[in-house]
DNA sequence: CTGAAAGCGCTTACAG
DNA sequence: CTGAAAGCGCTTACAG
């Protein structure tokens, strides 16, 4: 590989001049240098440049799981927004583990100029180590306790979950279950709070037997749904707190031959790529994903390139309720008013 | 940040000794050095190390689109297989564009030790530039013409597509359409060849009006399906050549209220994450994805760490036919034998 | 605008 | 096993 010395020699100037030309500064020998560069096929070594300048030219992206369509979309948004700024993306999955996340951050820190991070848990220490090291980070979809100084791009978890609750309440449901994610994550905490608030507005409380916590993965959604169906008095409606758990719940429902929405209503936080193709189509709380990634990247770039040093900026994106076919009023067999009478005879259609 | 000089000074040894200790070589002052490193919170600069050693510690991953669940799974496999080897992943999307791909490769080349690449088209020049530059690359899911020297991990496109054709033929279909991807991609070429072969085994040919080519994206699957449905004699079965186009086709079918499999059968290459939840569940050609990524990474690592210099190794993964509910024998109204008679009266149920 | 020179933080023959 | 020294390929005050 040709070095800057080769170019300088060939062009008959000093390496300093070549370096200036590379940086776009006005240089007398511009034409000769360009020629030498082309003939030698020269391209500067990013490693050497970084060593001198301290600029790494890379951004670390750490998400729980790229396999989750939401995060895949986020990554796409990140890339779109960063195009043309000369940064590359170092991607890693934390697999929802705070330990792995901390390791990854430590590994990546000396290699990047900043981070886009969706922390596994709100108690994660990794992000704080970052701010101590002076590496800017914007938190995506999830906050961290004591992390007010970070830029954050969130979705309106409370508002979305509240809308889900209101929707179910307005349909007449009373036996309503929530399959939530860990409450030590921002989405888990926010969606729970919002859901409880929405129920409260309908003078309902979340019955402890219907108050379930999974781990945001498909399998936990499936298992918990199975548990709910096995209850002596199973719920007439379920709110699943994210896309993957919704899929798990739907699979459990199908396996148990529970009809949606006849026997049970289901509404999920996050739309599914095939949400509109399901039978019935999924009622859900939809939200931007690619845009959320793009927004986060723009915040980071503004710190990196404009040297912005404000306090943490908070952006909260709106959700929207998509009423499709998976929710409806509870069937007569489950209607609260007549439930006791019917149950004395039938034992309840869904409790088996 | 502490440098190796700080550590050396504190430990009372030379930087050479510290460097050797870092590399795991036996050193007398090991204990003192360790202490100094801990007290200073020293961690070596990867940039400086790279500049000296030439080892970049990163692998470039270039795929058409991480948003495609197949590639998201592949990326997960790549990461799993590389864990513990000390490499980081630089991820970029080519967006199915050969030009963007070439730019990305040029940008990334000086920063990585090797590439995992799913080329946009078989004529791409980018990969050849790589081998000229001496940067190892393994091709994933897609080959490149004249690229016999590359390691490649493919899926059995021919076999899978042939199985799809056989399945439809065995059900009695004759008016069979294929919605393929670009034939200048390995999957497009292979799946077409396999499908034609499968039809030929049933003494059938692919009618030119049923021989469609999209771009592997959802929207093209939708558009083409609409075109097929508008045909005076629409097909009784469709084979879609990848996951995204299958989704598009299903949406078109739903929008046009065409019943599956009553009015039309559909089989896709690639399973969908919700494939089993659809009504009817999707019949498809399934294949490994995470494993394909892991395999590709192992090939690359073997070149990188063991310095293997063999000729290109080819791995072809098997597909499996998942017969679910979206395919069945053509209905009487479409049965070839009696079609002419019926059509004289009804005009055909699906042609509207 | 330009060049000589120092230095970014390491690693690695070379000599001991 | 260890240290002095050169050098990886750049950039950037400094002096002109």
From TrEMBL, chains A, B:
It comes from the Bacteria. The keyword Ribonucleoprotein does not apply. It holds the Pfam family Peripla_BP_3. Residues 2-53 form the HTH lacI-type domain. InterPro entries: HTH_LacI, LacI/GalR-like_sensor, Lambda_DNA-bd_dom_sf, Peripla_BP_I. PANTHER family: HTH-TYPE TRANSCRIPTIONAL REGULATOR GALS, LACI-RELATED TRANSCRIPTIONAL REPRESSOR. This is LacI family DNA-binding transcriptional regulator. It comes from Jatrophihabitans lederbergiae.
């Amino acid at each position: 590989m040709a070095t800057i010395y080769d170019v300088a020699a060939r062009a008959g100037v000093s390496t300093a001049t070549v370096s200036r030309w590379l940086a776009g500064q006005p240089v007398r020998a511009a034409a000769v240098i360009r020629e030498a560069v082309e003939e030698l096929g020269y391209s500067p070594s990013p490693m050497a440049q970084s060593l001198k300048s301290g600029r790494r030219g890379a951004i670390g992206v750490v998400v729980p799981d790229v396999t989750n369509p939401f995060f895949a979309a986020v990554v796409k948004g990140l890339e779109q927004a960063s195009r043309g700024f000369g940064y590359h993306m170092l991607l890693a999955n934390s697999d929802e583990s705070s330990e792995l996340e901390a390791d990854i951050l430590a590994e990546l820190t000396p290699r990047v100029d900043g981070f886009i991070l969706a922390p596994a848990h709100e108690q994660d220490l990794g992000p704080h180590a970052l701010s101590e090291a002076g590496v800017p980070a914007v938190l995506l979809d999830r906050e961290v306790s004591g992390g007010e100084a970070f830029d954050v791009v969130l979705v309106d978890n409370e508002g979305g979950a509240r809308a889900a609750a209101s929707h179910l309440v307005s349909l007449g449901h009373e036996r309503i279950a929530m399959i939530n994610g860990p409450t030590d994550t921002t989405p888990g905490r926010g969606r729970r709070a919002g859901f409880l608030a929405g129920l409260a507005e309908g003078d309902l409380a979340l019955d402890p037997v219907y108050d379930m916590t999974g781990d945001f993965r498909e399998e936990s959604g499936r298992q918990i749904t199975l548990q709910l169906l096995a209850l002596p008095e199973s719920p007439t409606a379920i709110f699943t707190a994210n896309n993957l758990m919704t899929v798990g719940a739907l699979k459990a429902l199908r396996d148990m031959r529970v009809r949606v929405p006849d026997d049970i209503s289901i509404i999920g936080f996050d739309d599914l790529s095939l949400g509109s193709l399901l039978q019935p189509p999924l009622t859900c709380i939809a939200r931007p994903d690619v845009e959320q990634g793009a927004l986060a990247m723009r915040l980071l770039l503004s710190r990196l390139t404009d040297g912005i040093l404000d306090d943490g900026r908070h952006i909260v994106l709106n959700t929207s309720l998509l009423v499709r076919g998976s929710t409806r009023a509870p069937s007569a067999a489950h209607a609260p008013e007549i439930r006791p009478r019917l149950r004395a005879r039938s034992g309840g259609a869904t409790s088996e």
